[in-house]
Write a structure and sequence with these properties.
The protein is α/β, with parallel strands linked by helices. It has 14 helices and 14 strands. The radius of gyration is 24 Å and the shape is globular.
Length: 399
């Protein structure tokens, strides 16, 4: 997978924030070396967030976000400010662009407070320093000029340093397996599968297995039994797509560890424990309860789609209740969840960890249980404890 193919969820999200006409869009263009955003002397030129996935040296794959002015006014202005606040939920690093001629304003200080409250690493870019050369200095301050390019290289270096300090060595599966082990991956290919490729969690799992110097054997569910026989010795683990969890659990002997791509992804994104405790709420659903099924990506839903067809059908069969199912996808995740009895989210492979954390916390703050596809499906198939056997601390105490 090349840098241009790096998924959004694996990119560092860098948001540029500030007042109207502080020079955010001009600075974004200077940092990226591209005309990504329209610039003008007229305040409020940027009316919607502008996203650009690119390689930003010396950092690597990033997603740059140019936001509307935080001081925008009127009804449309309030909507733009709301969008800016939503962007903060997925921002790994924030750059506050300040007009050096005006200095920090109340709006800028409000943004700084939000950065601190949300624990978002940030830099203050004192723009238009070619007009005013004396700007406050400090650990978070960088003096720049989008017009002349002064300080832009330093800004990029400082952003990269912040990103590295925030990074870690997370693994999807590599830390759970030993070199030389054999892992069987069950990947259904049906009408809902993307043509000519594997879905992202499957791709990421294969790569991490190879990085761990282990062997990945990829099969469809119909080939699983024959593959297990041909291997000669039992594989060290089987990882399956959630939608065939029930079928696969009957084929794979109990002595072989079994889990799903979705469960691995929940751990990778930092919310597996929440997903396990949230799944228990499925048993307590009542007639008329409202359940949100949310996906981080957008795609054309087809017959047999797991989110819109298979999960609702399984919920109805397992609970025996008449439930109200609401679907959301992409960035359309509701902030008000007070009417919901449960949120079932996808693995979040297209969302960065910060946004998944925001979505999880949004539910928790409103006392709404939050789980994901793989955990919910494992519970409803009666195999949740088995699917968590590779995480003994979580499996302990489950029925």
């Amino acid at each position: 997978m090349g840098l241009n193919d790096t998924p959004s969820g694996e990119r560092v999200h860098i948001g540029f924030f500030g007042q109207r006409n502080a020079g955010k869009s001009s600075l974004v263009n200077a940092v990226t070396g591209q005309e990504l955003a329209v610039v003008s002397d007229v305040s409020g030129t940027t009316t919607d967030p502008v996203y650009k996935a690119m390689e930003l040296l010396p950092l690597g794959p990033v997603e740059i976000i140019d936001t509307p002015g935080f001081d925008d006014v009127g009804e449309l202005g309030s909507l733009r400010v709301r969008k800016t606040r939503q962007i903060l939920a997925k921002t790994d690093i924030a750059v506050l662009v300040v007009n050096s001629e005006k200095g920090l304003t109340d709006y800028d200080n409000e943004l700084l407070e939000i950065f601190r409250d949300k624990e978002i690493p940030y830099l203050i870019a004192w723009n238009k320093s070619d007009v005013k050369t004396v700007c406050p200095e400090g650990e978070n301050a960088v003096t720049v000029s989008a017009a002349t390019g002064q300080g832009v290289h330093e800004l990029k270096e400082r952003i990269a340093a912040l990103a590295r300090s925030e990074g870690d060595s997370k693994r999807l599966i590599g830390d759970l397996i030993a070199p030389g082990s054999t892992i069987v991956l069950v990947t259904p290919i049906d009408a809902a599968a993307p043509k000519g490729r594997l879905i992202l969690p499957q791709q990421m799992t294969v790569r991490d297995i190879l990085d761990a110097d282990a062997c990945a054997v990829v099969v469809k569910e119909g080939q699983l039994a024959a593959t297990l026989e041909k291997l000669g010795s039992a594989p060290d683990m089987v990882v399956t797509d959630s939608q065939v969890f029930g079928f696969v659990s009957k084929v794979v002997p109990e002595n072989i560890p079994l889990t799903s791509f979705s469960i691995l992804m929940a751990r990778y994104k930092g919310f597996l424990e929440t997903a396990v405790s949230g799944a228990a709420a499925i048993k307590n659903l009542k007639d008329g309860d409202k359940v949100l099924i949310s996906e981080g990506c957008t795609h054309h839903r087809q017959c047999g789609d797991i989110g819109s067809v298979k999960l609702p059908a399984l919920l109805k069969k397992f609970t025996g209740k008449e439930l109200e199912i609401v679907l959301s996808s992409g960035r359309d995740f509701p902030e008000d969840l007070s009417d919901y009895s449960l949120v079932i989210h996808c693995g979040g492979c297209m969302l960065n960890e910060r946004e998944m954390t925001w979505r999880r916390r949004t539910a928790q703050m409103q006392d709404v249980p939050f789980t994901n596809y793989g955990t919910a499906i494992a519970l409803m198939n009666g195999i949740l404890k088995r699917s968590l056997s590779i995480f003994p601390d979580l499996a302990e105490g489950l029925e």
